[in-house]
Amino acid sequence: MPVRNNAFQDRLARSREITISVVGRKSGRSISNPVWFVWEEHNLYLLPVRGSDTQWYKNALKNPSIRIDAGGAEAEFKPTLVTDRKQVASIVEKFRAKYGAGDVKKYYSKFDVALVVPMR
How many folded domains does the chain comprise? Predict the structure, then answer.
């Protein structure tokens, strides 16, 4: 779903962390998690900390709609799931550039999937 909300993008630009909400694949309830992200050009990149073993990622596979809260501004999106090794590696590099290679190594344990959220 396209976002034309400048307030949302302004908050995104000033945030280091966002909250994503997914629908639980078993419970059907909304589950929220704080996550790191990279916003570049017209895409928002998300990297699950335990790759395909991350619970919110498994939920997004079953119900591919996520709600993003960036500093109080919210919007709903349908992300693209990325499993191509080269594309995932490129996204990992974006995270290393933003958060530092040491912190990415410290907090992320598996790099087999990512999500791309189109922002236009």
Answer: 1
